[in-house]
Specification:
alpha+beta, GMP Synthetase, Chain A, domain 3, four-stranded mixed β-sheet, about 25% strand, globular
Length: about 100
């Protein structure tokens, strides 16, 4: 009986270890969105643009899934830490664009 319990414990530990990368990757940041991406962008854009160095936001596709793109003048460690990696279940990608300039008419 004792050896069966030991085997069961060892198998259980290996199952957890083998699934750990999937648990981390599919953690709370990747939960299903409860709002449309348009709603999330509308609610978040003003706050994101208030961060120094952020030029704009957009809806995009990241790995074939809807995501939020944040355009920045220069992608710095400080901005990476200030901009969330997801918003309401949608992944956020940071794209360095430089300064936006209006085209001459």
């Amino acid at each position: 009986m004792r050896s069966i319990n030991s085997v069961f414990i060892i198998i259980s530990i290996w199952i957890v270890i083998l699934n750990l990368p999937f648990i981390i990757i599919n953690g709370s940041e990747n939960k299903m969105p409860s709002k449309s991406i348009e709603e999330v962008l509308e609610e978040s854009t003003d706050e994101l643009i208030s961060i120094k160095g952020v030029m704009g936001t957009a809806q995009g596709l990241c790995n074939g899934q809807p995501c939020i793109i944040v355009y920045v003048v220069k992608k710095t460690e400080q901005l990476i830490h200030q901009i969330p990696s997801s918003l309401d279940g949608y992944p956020v990608e940071i794209e360095e664009t430089g300064v936006f300039k209006a085209l001459p008419e």
